[in-house]
Amino acid sequence: MPELRKDPVSDRWVIISTERGKRPADFKVEKEAEKTGFCPFCEGNEDKTPREIISIRKPGTLPDKPGWLVRVTANKFPALIIEGDVNRKGQGMLDMMSGIGAHEVIVETPEHVMHLGDMPVEQIEKVLWAYKQRLIDLEKDKRFRYILVFKNYGSQAGASLAHPHSQLIATPITPRYVKMELTNSRLYFQQKERCIFCDLKEQELGSGERIISENEYYVAFCPFASRFPFEIWLLPRKHYAGFQELPDEERSQLAIMMKDTLSRLKVTLNNPPYNYVLHTAPNPTPRAGRPDYWGTIGYDYHWHIEIIPRLTMMAGFEWGSGLYINPTSPEQAAKFLRDAIV
Hints:
single chain; alpha+beta; HIT family, subunit A; ten-stranded antiparallel β-sheet; three-stranded mixed β-sheet; 22% strand
């Protein structure tokens, strides 16, 4: 029988349509033709992108020249622009502001074709280092309230270039989905003086039926109210509100966990397109008139990564109701992923 399940973090309801009960082989993912031609992210084409912001380089090499291992630049076609003031204003009941923000590209490797799950752990560590450095730097800008790091893999997931890369966008607002998590996390902490994510992690570890893998510092599982087939959440075992707080010595364990998790997806689902998003704490800069805004954020929020394989399409019911229909139970999906040989 189908089930309605509620996600405790977002208060979002999901329909787990168990009668559809799809297995990995039921999701037919068309293999994408390898894109050929000019690639601005390939080594040697540094002059075809904006100047690099930060990079990890081989010794003796110069900025904006070959010899880099990871490279971060501004997006050449940004969704938001970094110059200017926010200029909040309204027209009656309608609110608006200038499209101020930052939009950057993290080029993850000089290799043109490389799945993140196939990269050496040391290379994934370098990508995670770049995420952390850009978050630390951009949160100094008081105009930005939130910074979202995300990756689109495959054209069906929104990737316009095949070269391995991820992106970040800093916005002058807190996005709605993130605010839902933040608000419910704060309410939970006020009621119980505990982090909702820490409690969720412990419950999943205790049950074990939705756990995919774990190590000393991280746990990966399919959430109880998964919106999508084979959706995965990756949480640190220790409580950190912001990804920026991640100690350097724990970054290698995160790289190992990401490599393992993405490899399991690739093997189980025949290299599907996917998105992942890094949900971290918002900019802690105090706001005029609201000095306590997110005042308990260090206690009640918990950064995490959400991985979403692009196996189904949202249709009229989902768009009209806000309810997701998932044809694969998270328990079944976790078992397939847990049993994968990587």
